Structures are given as structure tokens and as C-alpha cells.
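Subject: Sanity check before I submit

Could someone independently write out the C-alpha cells for this chain? I want to compare against mine line by line before I put it in a report. The sequence has 198 residues.
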Amino acid sequence: MAAGAETTTELLRLDGADFVLRLTRRASHLGLLALHGGVEGGTAELAEEAAARTGATCLTFTQPTTPRVHISSHLLAQAPSRTLEAFLSAVSLTVSLHGHLRPATPHAIFLGGTNRAAAETLAAALRTLTPSFTPVTDLAEIPPGLRGLHPRNPVNLTREGGVQVELPLTARTQGLRDVPPEEVVAGVTEGVRRLLGP
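---
Independent answer below. Compare away.
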């Protein structure tokens, strides 16, 4: 673990599902978030790896037991969680990693959320380092359910809002393993570095 990192965990039960929240705080204004770890395979792993490489803060939600359920992001924000509150107060900009299974767009990485300038910065890094995938930032081209614009979505609750990154299955897993391809890890990591600035 990087110097200066502090990790805490919290157990949470919501709508009959158990969650483990893992928060790694670092001295950074940017936070990586994965709300559906395990349900959207590879997203928690990608968030933790990119955060470790860049010194960003990271919060992951995972479900230790099956069957795992998908609970909408804005509903997770309503959970009485001291860990989520600590994350939202510690960072000013959020990059939230999600997964999509849209067969019509198997290579598209959709970048939604309310911070459109940050979405463009992240997309520029992805265009350079993830040739197998196509970043999409035009909200009109992003399916409505993947735009990440709900005002209670955690990605939009930090001071500068954030970017909701929707990754296709092959951008976040390899075979049966929830291990993102290195090109995606490198692209997200470079995008986070650019958002962090000099």
C-alpha cells in the first residue's frame, strides 16, 4: 500500500443484500468509485488498481454473498453509510466505474456524469491508450440509462461532480477472471493522472 494510505471497511445491508465497503483514503482531490463490484465484474479491481497507481482515493462496494443484486446508484447514495459520506467529503471530483452489456456497442466506453470537461479529458487518454475500444462522450449517443446524470447518483455528489465510465465486458474482464486488460488499466490511469494535474 502506498505511503499515506488509510483503509477502512464497513458492512452494510440494503434491500436484503449485504455489501462490503472498502475505502482507501489518500491525499488526493480525486476519488475512484466502483458501486457494483462483483455484479459488474472487474470494476472494483480497476478502481483499486488505477487509484494505487495514481495516488487517488478509492471506494468500492462489493457483495460477499450470492445471489448478487444490482441496486441503482442513486439508491445506494441513500444508504446510511458513514464510509460513503467520508468519501464524498474527502474528494471534490469522482470517476465512477461501471459495466454495461449492450450488444449493439460491444467496444464502446461511455463517459457520462455531470462534469463534461473531465469526461473529455478522460476520453482523450482512453483514445490514445485503448485502441480496442471507442470512448463516447456525446450524451446524445449514450443510452439514457448509462448517462449517469441522476442528481443523487454518487458520481455527481462531489463538489466538481464527476465522470461515470461505463465499460463493456471485454474492457473489464479477461475470460472468467474479473481482471481488466492492461490497456484499459493504462488508459484509465493516464486519464486520472491528467485530471489530477501537475
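---
OP: Matches mine. For the report I'm noting this point. The helical segments are 43-54, 73-76, 82-90, 116-129, 182-196.
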